[in-house]
């Protein structure tokens, strides 16, 4: 059995200090086997913001793995954005923007979906290049078959049910098809600051496997999971700060959501 805490969109530079402190206590108080951080550690990739993110990571007692988000490359310093977009991320967070993790039960492959430029006005959307899909397939294939496999990116792989037109990471369909072929059971992402979980299109019967607020996905049926923003004051709609708690056991993933109620972290009310 493995326990994962999935945090996302921390956005240091625009966080609520009380939420940050309580999150550190919460994550360390019942330490998971792994923390996955699915991007947007900062607000605008400023060195001071990265320093705050690094200080947060240094306080965590569990191992962690992460990917950059679109906010983790500078929107102001265009020379840096184009020449060395991930230099600050590599310096403060992690040298590798696409790390892997494997132990005796789970295998995690990370994808960097951030673009420095796009042929459209909004450069915040993400994409997966064909070469990244091929590399991810090779990395997954190199892992033992019995591991429960997870892919992490910043931008969403599936839209929420309440917004079927939501912009997804570019080549989401191709990527999910490849992940399914590789036996991936779970994808973890953020960016939208909304938490939800949904099966990949081919595995989606329309009915969610939700019981008492816990979403369950099993190997052979790919579940795509989104996290809310764990610590940012930049929230969407009525969504509170949130993160996901995931338990992997016997080939299945159970996903529940923790939310900030204004005074502490509590279980989200069953949907
Ligand atoms: Fe983002």
From TrEMBL:
Domain of life of the organism encoding this protein: Bacteria
Keyword list, A-Z: Hydrolase, Iron, Metal-binding
Annotated Gene3D superfamilies: 3.60.21.10
Domain Calcineurin-like phosphoesterase positions: 3-194
Keyword field contains Metal-binding: yes
One GO molecular-function entry: metal ion binding
Pfam family, one: Metallophos
Family of the protein in this entry: Belongs to the cyclic nucleotide phosphodiesterase class-III family.
UniProt-recorded name of the protein: 3',5'-cyclic AMP phosphodiesterase CpdA
Protein's organism: Methylobacterium phyllostachyos
């Amino acid at each position: 059995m493995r326990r994962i805490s999935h945090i996302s969109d921390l956005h240091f530079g625009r966080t609520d200090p009380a939420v940050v402190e309580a999150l550190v206590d919460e994550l360390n108080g019942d330490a998971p086997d792994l923390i996955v951080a699915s991007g947007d550690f900062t607000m605008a990739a400023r060195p001071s913001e990265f320093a705050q993110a690094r200080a947060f990571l240094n306080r965590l007692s569990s191992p962690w793995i992460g990917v950059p988000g679109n906010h983790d490359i500078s929107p102001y310093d265009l020379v840096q954005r184009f020449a060395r977009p991930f230099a600050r991320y590599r310096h403060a967070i992690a040298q590798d923007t696409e790390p892997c993790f494997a132990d005796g039960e789970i295998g995690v492959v990370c994808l960097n979906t951030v673009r420095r430029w796009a042929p459209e006005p909004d450069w915040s959307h993400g994409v997966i290049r064909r070469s990244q899909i091929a590399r991810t397939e090779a990395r997954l294939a190199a892992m033992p078959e019995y591991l429960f496999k997870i892919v992490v990116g910043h931008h969403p792989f599936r839209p929420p049910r309440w917004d079927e037109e939501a912009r997804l990471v570019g080549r989401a369909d191709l990527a999910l098809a490849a992940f399914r072929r590789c036996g991936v059971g779970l994808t973890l992402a953020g960016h939208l600051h909304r938490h939800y979980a949904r099966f990949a299109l081919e595995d989606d019967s329309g009915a969610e496997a939700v019981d008492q607020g816990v979403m369950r996905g099993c190997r052979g049926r790919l579940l795509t999971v989104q996290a809310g923003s764990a610590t940012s004051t930049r929230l969407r709609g009525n969504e509170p700060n949130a993160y996901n708690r995931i338990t992997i056991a016997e080939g299945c993933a159970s996903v529940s959501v923790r939310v900030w109620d204004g005074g502490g972290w509590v279980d989200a009310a069953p949907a």
